[in-house]
Specification:
There is one protein chain. Helix 8 packs across helix 10. The chain has a seven-stranded parallel sheet with strand order 3-2-1-4-5-7-12, sandwiched between helices. The chain has a single domain, classed as Rossmann fold. The chain starts with 14 loop residues before the first helix and ends in a 19-residue tail after the last helix. By secondary structure, it is of the alpha/beta class. It has twelve helices and 15 strands.
Length: 349
């Protein structure tokens, strides 16, 4: 990651440009949307991935010239997110997914992407973590028993693996550490149970870690370096995938749903050294880098190879993500103010 290659694309100049880029559908997604029968519903749409994924689906449907509804379901604590989704042609529905009667009233959809979940605060409020991560999937699977369901999970269910390895693969036995990871595995088990019982096609996507310019591992590191704060490299290696690539891979994934439920990792093509990322960010931010700790021999890592074979490989390189992130942070671009805490090694979130 030394030097600036000549083919770097310029970073988006505004949030509007960023969201346009994150939701721009590649031709493969247009083709995928044209091939699907019925409407799409995105549950938990107001989170970090949902808005641009739903917009990508909407844009692809329009480019394909087909007639499908895109529903966006959330509690919508921030009215601005709902307004933005509506302006993009997404039909929004306010719903608490823990409310069984409200879930029962949700509109039919042949394809469902479930992104709801509870992570930060799971150790302080374990009851909410278990309810949000295990009870909600049961309600969703019962409501959409006749649909194809993609449910987001996390690589945290695997536990730590050697940093010298290619990362956890889909056939590895889960070893969840901490309340959050245990409930994430519980979410998967609920989906697996209802997939078998009702013959519902389900795909479980274990994600590590989606990033864009307002949120993600690279933003966390760039902000620390730009502010002159030391970076702990004990969690010395990490996966990153550009959010638009994760969006596109997800929207191409519906044919992979099956009963029994299928598991796929969603991760970038390489394991990234945190030390090397910091060195490169420091160069492009023109800031000295202070590192603390020493790299552990293990980390939370996913191998995304099978997902790339089935869903297509990511198109945005780690180098491009780093360049964009450095530019964005250097000029004071807005962020979501939600650190990933990817360095956490105790399982406590």
């Amino acid at each position: 990651m030394t030097g600036k290659p000549p083919d770097f694309l310029p970073a988006p100049a505004s949030v509007e440009e960023l969201e346009e880029l994150l939701s721009r559908p590649p031709d493969s997604v247009v083709t995928a949307m044209a091939a699907l029968d019925g409407d799409l519903a995105f549950l938990g749409v107001a989170g970090k991935m949902g808005p641009t994924m739903a917009r990508m689906a909407r844009r692809a449907i329009e480019l394909a010239g087909v007639n499908k509804q895109v529903f966006g379901v959330s509690r919508f604590r921030d009215p601005a997110v709902r307004e933005r989704l509506e302006s993009w042609g997404i039909r929004t529905i306010a719903c608490d997914l823990l409310d069984e009667e409200a879930v029962a009233r949700l509109p039919d959809a042949a394809q469902v992407v479930s992104m709801s979940g509870f992570k930060f605060g799971a150790s302080d409020h374990p009851d909410l973590a278990w309810a949000g991560n295990c009870h909600v999937p049961a309600l969703v699977c019962r409501r959409y028993r006749d649909s194809r369901i993609i449910t987001f999970s996390t690589g945290n269910v695997y536990g730590m693996v050697p940093a010298s390895s290619p990362g956890s693969v889909e056939t590895d036995a889960p070893r969840p550490d901490g309340e959050y990871a245990m409930t994430a595995l519980g979410r998967e088990r609920m989906c697996e149970y209802f997939s078998r019982r009702n013959n519902t096609p389900v795909l479980l996507l274990r994600l590590n870690y989606a990033t864009e310019l307002r949120y993600g591992v690279l933003v966390d590191l760039a902000q620390q370096i730009h502010a002159g704060r030391p970076v702990d490299v004990t969690m010395g290696h990490v996966n990153v995938i550009w959010l638009a690539d994760a969006n596109a891979m997800t929207l191409r994934a519906f044919p992979q749903a099956s009963s029994p439920a299928r598991i796929l990792n969603l991760a970038g093509p390489e394991i990234v050294s945190v030390r090397e990322v910091c060195r490169q960010l420091g160069e492009w931010l023109d800031r000295p880098v202070t590192l603390t700790g020493a790299e552990s021999g293990d980390a939370l890592l996913n191998c995304g190879r099978l997902g790339h074979q089935l869903l297509g490989p990511p198109q945005v390189s780690t180098r491009q993500m780093l360049r964009w992130t450095a530019d964005w942070v250097a000029r004071g671009g807005p962020t979501l103010g939600k650190p990933t805490h990817f360095q956490t090694r105790t399982g406590v979130f």
